[in-house]
Amino acid sequence: MTKSEFIDRVAAKTNFTKADAERAVNAFLEVVTETLKRGGEVNFTGFGKFSVSKRAARQGVNPRTGERIKIAAAKVPRFTPGSQLKNAVK
After folding, report:
1. Dihedrals φ, ψ of 37, to 5°?
2. Looking at residue 39, what DSSP letter applies?
3. Which of 23, 60, 72, 76 is deepest in the core (most CB within 10 A)?
4. Which residues of 27-36 are buried (b: 16+ CB within 10 A; e: fewer)?
5. One MF term in GO for this entry (predicted)?
6. What is residue 60's predicted lDDT score, i.e. its pLDDT?
């Protein structure tokens, strides 16, 4: 499902106009992004949790040359599904 299709589905379920649904979806994405940038987490009980995880520095291998390279430490976004979402997908 693309973002556009998602906006169409939100508009249909909420009786919002497509423009209102797009603003709502964009606002949701902005709030989640800003919260994760600050190192926080967004938790929806039963649905899941958006959080930031730290990935340690590690050694890697360039597949073309076989040369060893150092991959720097990084922060990565993570989503952990909640129990209701897991059960719905089963």
Report:
1. -60, -35
2. T
3. 23
4. eeeeebeeeb
5. DNA binding
6. 95
**Who contacts 68 (Cβ-Cβ below 8 Å, separation ≥6)?**
59, 60, 61, 62
The residues, ordered by sequence, that sit 6+ positions from 69 with a Cβ below 8 Å of its Cβ are 59, 60, 61, 62
Q: What's the pLDDT score for residue 18? A: 96
| CB atoms near residue 78 (< 10 Å) | 13
Q: Does domain 3-89 have CATH number 3.40.50.300?
A: no
- Two tokens, residue 28: 């949701």
The one-character DSSP state at 72 is P
Whether the CB-CB separation of 46 and 83 falls below 8 Å is answered with yes
* pLDDT tens digits, one per residue of 20-67: 999 999 999 999 999 999 999 999 999 999 999 999 999 999 999 999
In 15-89, which ranges are continuous DSSP H helix?
A: 18-37, 83-89
